[in-house]
Amino acid sequence: MRIATFRSGGRRRVGSLSPDGKTIRPFDLGAAEELGALAVIERGLRADSPSLGASIPTAGLVFDAPIPRPRRNIFCVGKNYHEHAHEFAKSGFDSSAASGAVPEAPIVFTKVPECVIAPGAAIEIDPAASTAIDYEAELAIVIGKGGRGIKKVDALKHVWGCTIVNDVTARDLQAKYKQWDIGKSQDTFCPMGPVLVSADEVDIANIDVKCWVNGELRQDSNTSLLIFDIPTLIETISAGITLYPGDIIATGTPVGVGIGFNPPKYLKHGDTVKIALSGIGVLENPVRQRGVSADAKIAAEARA
């Protein structure tokens, strides 16, 4: 099942997409529609749910993040691909590099729920806060069955499905504070979507992860290359933290982020970041400087 959250008639709706993506069957969720796909997960609804209505065309609909506001912080994993671990360690921005480029255990941090934005929404750069904004294409899994002390052998039974996340990062803040939450949780720093795909439709251990900036392919990898696989991540986090339905775990980004280039290729006003994960879809977002419109940028370039 492929779940999408969208806007129609001035209200948020949630529905099950057809295989070709051309139509969607909205769920009847009442006030819980504001929760997006989280309401579907918490109620245990499936593709044969009697609460599904008639199909409507998707053409012209505005899609939101599948879970527009997670109930809790998003769990994220740093340095979880070997090549990325080495490129980050060499960048001079990695406060954990002293203990080795490749971590011995998962590095887990979080992003606040309020930084989630929809496909097509702008990633905002605020020069007063940061001048080193980076992109990170990632597979994110969503918990369907909660639990504590989950063992690796049982971990995948707790996964509802997956989506795409762009773990946008302020590298200068990440280095300044010697921890990652502030640099990762800036407003608009978590584009998510376009859909939430149930685990039975994809092989989460074999998903191609690609990212382009302005049409230039920057990241090209596969989740089979994760240092710590998804069962390990679930076991690690749940060892002392209870996971709940709807919790999101972003699994890490592969080599090719902006900080890995010399000089670094940071995001700037007018850029477009496009992320594609096989079996899930495409997440694309423009980059805008706060307080500056795209039209103003075009006019300035024309005068130059």
Overview of this protein structure:
This protein has about 300 residues and is of the alpha+beta class. The protein folds into 2 domains: about 1-65, no CATH class; about 75-290, Fumarylacetoacetase-like, C-terminal domain (Fumarylacetoacetate hydrolase, domain 2, Alpha-Beta Complex). The protein is about 15% helix and about 30% strand. It has helices at about 35-45, 80-90, 150-155, 170-175, 180-185, 230-240, 295-304, and strands at about 1-10, 10-15, 25, 55, 60-65, 75-80, 105-110, 115, 125, 135, 135-145, 160-165, 170, 190-200, 210-215, 215-220, 250, 270-275, 280-290. Strands 1, 2, 3, 4, 5, 6, 7, 8, 11, 12, 14 and 17 form a 12-stranded mixed β-sheet that branches. β15 (about 210-215) and β16 form a beta hairpin. The radius of gyration is 19 Å and the shape is globular. About 45% of the residues are buried. Residues about 300-304 have low confidence and may be disordered.
